[in-house]
Structure formats: structure tokens, C-alpha cells
Amino acid sequence: xxxxxxxxxxxFLLFFVLYFVLSCATSNFPSVSELPKDNTTKxxxxxxxxxxxxxxxxxxxxxxxxxxxxxFSRVVVVRPDGKITLPLIGDVMASGLTANQxxxxxxxxxxxxxEIPKVSVSVTxxxxxxxxxxxxxxxxxxxxxxxxxxxxxxxxxxxxxxEWAKQSDLRLMRKINGQLKTYRIDYxxxxxxxxxxxxxxxKPGDTIYVP
Length: 211
Hints:
By secondary structure, the chain is an alpha+beta fold.
């Protein structure tokens, strides 16, 4: 009987230590304010034009402007098959390209009709970007991005935090250089003004988990 109690004690201690280690590990994530700085986030904060990074997909609205060629310039919506249609050159596959890549592609195709084509492509409405809110929010799930939004805006769209949410220990999961990284967000520090810098602009693919 004594041996059984000893073994149970060891098991209990093992679980306690494991719980303690996991608790420490999950609470020691770096703050979201320590995220690596990059131009993508800065550009997103200023404009809804994701020309250099956003991958075009079906449903996106594109503003195509060909310098001094109004007949080719227009706003088009990417069809479900991923293509757009332009005068003379016909169907062009846009899905899977960035705006800059599509711009280069159109310039090559237009050389047959325009001596020196200069094309600009802007994403005016993006329907191919999503972020995810999980855990203790009123309406967990995905949010489709049609413009840059911040942490507070995303939480508001999800209906706000539940009353038992750990407001000082939200988690942001983001892929950086191909690796999934986790950062801590102190929601209370944002809303009471102690650290508004944590109210970052979110990027496509970001996941916010609310314990």
C-alpha cells in the first residue's frame, strides 16, 4: 500500500512539474511589440494596395491603368476561373500573381498593340485574404480582409472578448520566414492606453487565439 502511495505521489509530482513547465512556456512568449519590423506591415497600414506582396485571387477587384491608353484602362473583377478579360489581348490569368507580376505580364502582352506600354495595377478590393480569431471571442472564425485592420478592429468584428477571456494574454500566431511564431498581446494594455503599440496591423494568415 505504501509503495502504491509513493508511485501515485511520483505521478502527481510529474504531472505538476509538467503543468508548471508548460505554463511557464506558454506565458513567456515575446510581446507582439517585438515583432520584426518590415515594410509590408508599414505599407498595409498606409494603403489597401498590396502590390508587392498580396497574391491576387478570384473575386478581387483590380484597377488597371495603361498610360495614355484609356481603351485598355478599366476596373475589372477576377472571375472564379482566376482570369480577367481586356480588349484585344482577351483572357489573362491573374490569380496567383501579385499586382506587380500582373503588371509585367500585361506590359509584355500589350507590346503587340502599344509601342511602349506602361501599366499600373492596383488591388482596390481584396477578397482573397483572411485572418482567424479563435478561443474566447463572441464569434470565432475567419475574417475576410478587404482592407488593413488592427488587432482591436479584428476583435470588434468578432463580437468582442468573452467575459472570462484572459485579456492580458492573447496570442498572435504568424508565419515569419516560413516558420510559425507566437507572440503575446496584452489587450488590456491597448485599451487602457498603456501600450497602444501592440495594436498592430494584421497580415493575411495571422491567427489570434484568446485563452
